[in-house]
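We store chain and fold; thus.
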Amino acid sequence: MLIIDKLMQSRDFSKGEELIAEFILQAGDGLRTYSARSIAKETYTSPATVVNLCKKIGFQGFNQFKLEYLKELEYVNQNFGEIDANKPFEEGDAIPMIANKMGALYEETVKDTLLLLHHDMVQKAVRIFLESGGIHVYSYGTALNIAESFKEKMMKIGKNVYITNNLNYQRYEINCLSPKDCVIFISYSGETKSIVDMAKTCIRRKLPFITITSYGENTLSNLCGINLYISTRESLTHNIANFNSNLSVNLLLDILYAAYFAVNYQHNYEYKLSVTKKSESGRSSSNPILKDKKK
């Protein structure tokens, strides 16, 4: 959940904390010029109340809160074009208009995902893949379907990826994994209880794992040191479809695959060609574009 959302919800805030939250929201990026003491003066509260508010929403103190809040504001305020990720097209739009708007949404989602990407996180994830015997992906719904493409790509270069669709089996399976295995958790909200519980099991069992989740503070990302962020422009429920988040997850998995592939590029390329030749020998086409070019 974004810090902004926590401030707006004012859950379990005292009256003084509500005043401070409202002041911070109104201040916007002007908050950079304020200290806990100056905020307390403006809201007729105390510096201790400012610090208590920061702790209540998950920070050690005001300075840490201000740093993360300003980073979040910078992301939220960035120009994301004129496309609403929740409703990228309107009633009455003609097909050409819908197509152009969907294309614009895809382009903006890719740019946004890359903006949130930390290359050191990708490197750490690839290192875990290299050291693991198998990769297990846990999520719900559509994300598991998207992960099937990742599984297929990795299998074609000799890396085993396992996907369990039965949610009860996921909870049992996490307790049976070898220390040589690793896990990918995919959760847009980062608050799905069973996923969070399984992440805690990984910590207890010392199983390496990475998360793919929304930008901002959430329980799942707080449990992990290797986080890849999904483009976070979409409501959890009030949307036409999960175009934005699904595309972002697919791109992140493709980046992980490509980065892993690149470590042993020539070997993986030859291995992939060998597997394709054996398993897809029946595929052919008269289209010159699709024909393999002899070297």
Summary: The longest helix spans residues 95-116. Residues 1 and 217 are 5 Å apart (CA to CA). The chain has a mean pLDDT of 89.
